[in-house]
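step: validate -> pass
step: tokenize input -> pass
step: predict -> running
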Amino acid sequence: MNKAFGYSVRNENGKLITGLGSPRYTSELATSAGRFEGVDYGEFGGVLRFFSSDKQAPPVVVKQGNVRFIFQHNGQVYFIEGLAHLGYRAGALYRVTGTAPAWGYTQVLAFDDAPEAFAREGDNLYIAQSSGFIVIRALQPEVIVPRAFWGGLYPNSVAVFGDTAYVGLRGGYARVIVSTGHVAFFKHLP
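step: predict -> pass
step: emit ->
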């Protein structure tokens, strides 16, 4: 399965859509002050940059690191870093502090598994990790599946439908029942 194509999942008007997936190396968040851009090149590093609405202002590096996801919660900007390489799997949730151009950051949570794919539903953040699945509610993590079968199958997307989340993987996708942690795998058949 590790050599299979990656398949992505998405919620399109309440219907699960699957298809060939590809790795994402950037994430963006537009704000009234400008645009945050996160880059993740795996073991080769990454960065979080801010591009001001003032086109004369140069881009500002907020933090070096593998930025996987950027979002707003209660008027604050947050970002998630993560890296899974060889035997290393970890990540963290950070809150951006300060104002342009003097941006800073503070760590909010540390993860013991690398966050790979994300979906936001309301105030909840659903995260497929390298080999697990968590939900962050009110900035507090809840482990749904501590160790799933998909270690090494590179989760690339998450789609949420109420109490059910789908995770796009190499070779197919998984269904996670959030309330029970039950996981099922579906091989993708074109």
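step: describe -> The chain has a mean pLDDT of 93.
step: cleanup -> pass
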